[in-house]
Design goal:
With 462 residues, the chain is mostly beta strands. It has seven helices and 30 strands.
């Protein structure tokens, strides 16, 4: 467990407990209290000390997703905590206020265990606060809801099921899709709310599912921030496309609502290439009962109380937001995705090779570069880079969408991101600056089954 922390105070010790077993062995009831992992609250400028105890029967790591930390505390696959062993890590919180998260990152000779271990419950939210955010007096307390979206499958006895049988083969290509969606480890709920504004902090903690977040009454989604914290100004979109590992910070104002009024946050339907369209054949091969692109509810809000709240949506959020800036001479590094029949996806024809770094995967400390992700495959790939937050500088459609035509107007490319969705047929350019720390980091697809099957590489800052 963790407790809210004061600036400068050391963080609480927390530990992984209980055994993990493959297949239908973990029933949901006993793990509900800590499924997903507990919320960790940190303040910018604080020093964190964590002692990580591995009580699992296999290697694990703890990766602080989105945080700008030195390589040796980044929880990378080359630094596993062995069963029964401990690791202590210390780092300073240099990141902007935002919703981040933590999850395991082990990768052995037979592939990664990120998908399985995260699925089994070793992932949780990490909230950073800072003075800029505090100054805005955004809704907090019970007016701030943290929502972790994860799709899961259950056996008849309510045991969690990961990948088995034909489904495993299918999931290797498309990623795991569960039969139902859980919000904070529970079936979606309806909450009683009052006539005032709310702030929703949403993490897509799913292995592979992409959400198309919208309001049931058609009102626009008002976005305050993304992975790396607040935007310069709020944005309004008809819907928000949230890829695995991404976060979105949403403002919703119910000040004018009537008592008894209801509003739902839904994931709206979209067309999803072969993942959605395989019909009976797909079902036979283990397609989920809730295919990609299905519509479902995530959160119900029922207005039950009147409240006066002086808050209104700030017109400016973070005036100091400074994404890496590029010029016409900023060097461009190109990464092309490919598919290897039955062996998963590749980046520039390579798959994961442990800490091995190729000549074209070395960057210079202090440099700003453009990385160009080219997706000529049939699947979307949410690309994540460790150790920093980047800015999207260009998104271009190269070919058709290969059966994924519906998600592009919900992509929030503003602000700072650590994960960017590259849809089939797209080329996306991001600007990154490699600051402060030398050494090895990784970049990979955050579809956890793609990552576990090799769509991951190390890069070196030198
Ligand atoms: Cu969530 Cu390698 O990261
Ligand atoms: Cu990460
Ligand atoms: Cu991928």
């Amino acid at each position: 467990d963790t407790v809210p922390l004061l600036p400068g105070a050391p963080s609480e010790v927390w530990r992984y407990d209980g055994a993990l077993v493959d297949g239908p062995a973990n029933t949901l009831a006993p793990i509900n209290a800590s499924y997903p992992g507990p919320l960790i609250r940190l303040c910018r400028g604080q020093r964190v000390r964590a002692r990580l105890e591995n009580r699992l029967p296999e290697d694990t790591t703890v990766h602080w997703h989105g945080l700008h930390v030195p390589p040796d505390v980044d929880g990378q696959p080359r630094l596993p905590i062995k069963p029964g062993e401990n690791m202590s890590v210390t780092f300073d919180v240099r990141d902007r206020a935002g919703l981040y998260w933590y999850h395991p990152h082990p990768h052995g000779p037979d592939g990664g265990r990120v998908g399985f271990q995260s699925y089994a419950g070793l992932a949780g939210p990490l909230l950073i606060e800072d003075d800029i955010e505090r100054g805005l007096e955004l809704p907090d307390g019970d007016q701030q809801l943290i929502l972790i979206l994860q799709d899961r499958s259950f056996a008849d006895d309510n045991a969690l099921r990961y990948m088995d049988g034909m489904g495993a083969m299918m999931a290797r290509m498309q990623g795991f899709l569960g039969d139902r969606v859980l919000v904070n480890g529970r079936p979606p709920q309806t909450r009683d709310v009052a006539t005032r504004p709310y702030r929703l902090r949403i993490l897509n903690g799913s292995n592979a599912r992409i959400y198309k977040l919208a309001w049931s009454d058609g009102r626009p989604v008002t976005v305050l921030g993304t992975d790396g914290g607040l935007l310069a100004k709020p944005q309004r979109l008809r819907y928000v496309t949230l890829a695995p590992a991404q976060r979105i910070d949403v403002w919703v104002d119910l000040s004018d609502a009537q008592i008894g009024q209801r509003l739902s946050l839904v994931s709206d339907s979209y067309r999803a290439g072969m993942m959605g369209g395989m019909g009976g054949m797909g079902a036979m091969m283990g397609r989920s009962a809730l295919p990609a692109g299905a519509r479902f509810d995530l959160l119900g809000l029922r207005v039950t109380d009147r409240a006066r709240d002086g808050r209104s949506l700030p017109q400016n959020l973070d005036p100091e937001l400074s994404p890496p800036s590029v010029t016409r001479t900023t060097p461009i590094r190109r990464f092309e995705f490919g598919m290897r029949m039955m062996r998963g996806f590749s980046i520039n024809e390579r798959q994961f090779e442990g800490a091995k770094v190729a000549d074209d995967e070395i960057v210079a400390l202090g440099d700003t570069e453009i990385w160009e992700f080219v997706n000529d495959t049939m699947m979307p790939h949410p690309m994540h880079v460790h150790g920093l937050q980047f800015a999207v500088v260009e998104r271009r459609r190269m070919t058709d969408r290969r059966g994924w035509p519906d998600l592009d107007s919900g992509l929030v490319d503003a602000g700072l991101l650590d994960t960017v969705l590259v849809l089939p047929g797209e080329r996306v350019r991001i600007a990154l600056t490699f600051k402060d720390f030398e050494g090895l980091y990784i970049y990979h697809c955050h579809n956890m089954e793609h990552e576990d099957n090799g769509m991951m590489r190390y890069y070196r800052v030198r």
